[in-house]
Predict the structure.
Amino acid sequence: MDASIPIVGRVRGAAAGTLCAGAALPAHSLGGGELPSSGTLIVLAAFGATIGAVVARSSGRLPGLIAALWVGQLVGHLLLGAMAGHGTPWSTAMLASHTVAAVVVGVCLWFGEHLVALLASSVRRWLVRTSPHAPAEQRITPRIWSDSADHPQFLIGSRAPTRGPPVALAR
């Protein structure tokens, strides 16, 4: 891949290519097609790498991601049909299963990318704020909970429960 593509794009492309080629198999068999031979799997994997390279250069927006994966599913269907030697029968079930596969994979990739970005920014922020090299106004010290009576309200109910009826019913 090109060095100018950011790491997020590379990971998105690798995941999209792998999942697009991988999702074409169950989608094709759920639509009524047969499972491929090992030679077909190699061609499908090479095609998945091509889809991955295209998606890596994209912006990562959901409609574009789903569109690229849908085109990948359709070309994957053509490859699976052509390599099996039976042509490409398009049934409604086949088209629906490939479309559902593209949408599900696209939404999962999009959510996964955003969750990783959220997690990475949270970890980065925490590491900067707890670092001894951080400026004094940004530095925080982790709070150590003690057994004193100044527990926050959400921790009060987290201990072992008492046996007996609730206090409101006992009165």
Observations:
- The radius of gyration is 26 Å.
- The first helix runs from residue 7 to 30.
- The chain has a mean pLDDT of 78.
- The helical segments are 7-30, 38-56, 62-84, 92-130, 153-156, 167-170.
